[in-house]
Amino acid sequence: MAGVRDALGSAPAEQSPLDAIRAVFTADSDWLDQRRSAAQRRRHILDARLDLREREGAKLAALAAAIAGALRTRGVPDPAATLTAAVSVTAYHCAAARWLADPQHGTFGQHLHASFDDLHRTHLVTSPDSADTAAAGACRRHSSRPV
Questions:
Q1: Above 70 in pLDDT, residue 141?
Q2: Scanning 7, 32, 73, 109, which has its CA 20 to 30 A from the CA of 101?
Q3: Cα separation of 33 and 20, whole Å?
Q4: pTM of structure
């Protein structure tokens, strides 16, 4: 968590909060790509164990809290900092679910970018009914399963 806070703290001031978070998440994506098999085994273990899924949910909540704190330090007021952190962690979670389910074995970075691109597109949408339903459906299928 400290690494995320530090990285967000050193992100360029002109970078939007979402873009700064995307950059932080993407920075280590190659490391995860090298451990895809281990991540898939981990996913199967989490799927089988409610106690571990709950623990994973707590870790994701702690990550969101760390990001929100870093955003507040960057001058993003609440509730915007908290909302941006929560939606960013959800984008990360959706990217991980897509990455593990991808039969083409796209990179984690590609899936992170796709999730954040989805977020940017829906952020600009004026009506919730016109959001990208395909992307939302892919995420929803995995939303109750922490990665």
A1: no
A2: 7
A3: 21
A4: 0.80
Note whether 109 and 118 are within 8 A (CB).
no
In the structure encoding, which two tokens stand for residue 108, read together? 């984690």
| Euclidean distance between CA atoms 133 and 7, whole angstroms | 32
Of how many residues is the chain composed? 147
Q: Domains of the chain, with CATH numbers?
A: 2-140 (1.10.357.10)
Residue 146 has pLDDT above 60, yes or no: no
Residue type, 4: V
The whole-angstrom separation of Cα 83 and Cα 73 is 15
> What pLDDT digit, counting tens, does each position of 6-52 carry?
888 888 888 999 999 999 999 989 999 999 999 999 999 999 999 99
Tokens describing residue 24: 């932080």
Token pair belonging to 114: 């796709």
